[in-house]
Amino acid sequence: MIILPTAHRILPRAAAVAASALVAVGLAACAPPEKESSGGDTESGVKVSEATSAEDFGGMDKLVEAAKAEGELNVIALPPDWANYGALISAFEDKYGIKVNSAQPDASSQDEINAANQQKGKSSAPDVFDLGQSVALANTSMFAPYKVATFDDIPAEYKDADGKWVNDYGGFMSIGFDTSKVPPVTSVEDLLKPEYQGKVALNGDPTQAGAGFSGVLMVAVAQGGSADDIAPGVEFFSKLKQAGNFLPVDPTPATIESGQTPVVIDWNYLNATESKKVPSWQVLVPENAPVAGYYYQAINSGAPHPAAARLWQEFLFSDEGQNLYAAGGVRPVRADAMIAAGTEDKAAFADLPVVHGPVTNPTPEQTEAATKYLADNWAKAIG
């Protein structure tokens, strides 16, 4: 087993993670309907909503100018403690003087898509998405292609060739547990023991949330399954339910700190943050089931602030943005290129965990098949 240190944040999903380097429902529904904005034209004559690079604006300075003119950016499902998004949002606001409206920070990936559909044509619609793989790949028709200045630094397997989506940060699936309330967890199998009755929570519905999906995959791998066979994971949760150990509560920092969810299956960087407030909280990445993954960053094709949405992407994939991700305990997608160029925050990168041995990271095709299996079987398993 690998018990990761919890004195600092640790790390999260990709297509071929190197073993040695791993890697709203309604936004302010009171907003009045508006004509969907195209943001006007850029200096090159391209509509802002159709700009595919900073060059279409006449360069980065012109993009900044257009974004500042819009003055706002709408984000959704970005908890401040998730991947250091609190610091990222503050840094973006300070750097550009653009107000960031953060809606429903605890929403799921599917909630992000629902919000974009429900708020389409309104000034409150999300400008950008940060999504789990299965939801992202099922909704690419909603994304506007855009290539950031550092696009070539990003390996091909971590981006759409046209820039419709780009992986931004990643980590490992883990089990967090409060040793003041339960015995130390040494394996997935431990969770079936009577000592964990009514205590095991999964972060999100795996048919809608990326963390929940990867949590079931981690359990499946530990039970002899694989990215091609998630069934053992669903069967295990069915056993957890039958044993009375599965706790149907979406964990949050509040539920962990109150003791309501003493065992949580979630990304290791999220679990690790809890040790700051719960000294008895520990984090385990099962040695026999390391599951990794990256999240997907994309621009809403109906973004009400299309220039600000594009500037946000530029910021996230810049050295500054990527180093802020690393400071939050997640592995930035440009990590290898930054290390080669010497632009990484060495202290933050040194804290990122390394898992030796084969790492499971589903391909889009595997994710699609597993998602269908979950849609057909998850509710029956835990119902």
UniProtKB/TrEMBL annotation:
Residues 1-31 form the signal peptide. Residues 103-122 have a biased composition (Polar residues). Keywords: Signal. It comes from the Bacteria. GO terms for molecular function: thiamine binding; thiamine pyrophosphate binding. Residues 103-126 are annotated as: Disordered. GO terms for cellular component: outer membrane-bounded periplasmic space. It holds the Pfam family SBP_bac_6. GO terms for biological process: thiamine transport. SUPFAM superfamilies: Periplasmic binding protein-like II. PANTHER family: ABC TRANSPORTER SUBSTRATE-BINDING PROTEIN, THIAMINE-BINDING PERIPLASMIC PROTEIN-RELATED. This is ABC Polyamine/Opine/Phosphonate transporter, periplasmic ligand binding protein. It comes from Mycolicibacterium smegmatis (strain ATCC 700084 / mc(2)155). The lineage of its organism: Bacteria, Bacillati, Actinomycetota, Actinomycetes, Mycobacteriales.
